[in-house]
């Protein structure tokens, strides 16, 4: 195994059993308990999870910890914070993580402080308002964590991870990047200064809408141990079949993403030119506010598009008229799915449809969208 291999190669090559007679792929380890002498219980790790973690760790450049879902991965990080810590969040993050923070806020566990993270100075100011902890040597540090998501769900906001990590590091605060939309192949948050990167592996990593899983990759062993400990304590361990499928999905991530992204580029241009569409968010469009930053810091624009129709009714009507594009939540599968996002994110852009572009023929997807967007006869 060589860490000089490109990410595309590492996604295929890492996490395989080695040695004469070993299977090429790690089979699912369907066992909860093991004879004494090694790791003796599945909640502390099995060869299934180790293989997946080895591949993910090599891709992100850190130590990976697999979880039973993306939400469990998020909770694994947040639960490792001290009581009363301020979590400085970018204003648009996945609504489930926002709800988790709300829940933890109600019990006084953490304080969610949303900010406009397109302005790193706003993050700096918010960290400066967090409570501080004193060390025995008399120094003090903010009891805070920065949590950002880029591209964000569902507004596809692009953030300057390096600039945010730099203001946070100056204040001794860690940054977490939810990189689910970017995947390990389009953004390298740990190299840009984050201490943790997390993914809902349910999405692009699994890639076939057939499993729930999450993963955290930590920059250093101390950070990894904090999160691994929460996984064991909370029992948020992934099943063997899910882990097997997630690793199998990872093997084809590069080709799936290339195809979906190329489809998304074409569809975004056509949607932007369509008279029924009032707004398109896709970082690959030259007119998108995040375009220049995404072009500079990412190695591709991803395959998620958000676009708006004039009303919630118009969005519902269009989605009820598609046949290839499935009206469904979640994202990152080989199939194109779309949903009206105000179902979940009340108060977001009017008539917003979030579309996860799949790997079908782009012309077939476009034909389906075009007839769905046409005025009713
Ligand atoms: C950006 C993002 N983070 C985290 C999650 C949560 O992941 P899971 O559904 O695997 O728990 C999601 C799910 O949609 C997501 O979109």
Low-confidence blocks of residues: none
Given the C-alpha coordinates, what overall shape results? globular
The total count of helices amounts to: 12
How would you describe the oligomerization state of the chains in this entry?
single chain
For the termini, the CA-CA separation is 60 Å
Helix/strand order, N-terminal first: HHEHEHEHEEEHEEEHHHEHEHEEEH
CATH superfamily of the largest domain: Type I PLP-dependent aspartate aminotransferase-like (Major domain)
Bound molecules: pyridoxal-5'-phosphate
CATH architecture of the largest domain: 3-Layer(aba) Sandwich
Quickly count the domains: 2
Q: State the helicity in percent bands.
A: 25-40%
Q: What's the story with the biggest beta sheet?
A: 7 strands, mixed
Mean pLDDT, nearest integer?
96
Beta-strand portion reads 15-25%
CATH class label of the largest domain = Alpha Beta
Task: Please give the radius of gyration in angstroms.
Answer: 21 Å
Structural class: alpha/beta
Order the strands across the largest sheet as they lie in space.
1-9-8-7-6-2-3
Q: CATH topology of the largest domain, anyone?
A: Aspartate Aminotransferase, domain 2
Q: Please give the number of β-strands.
A: 14
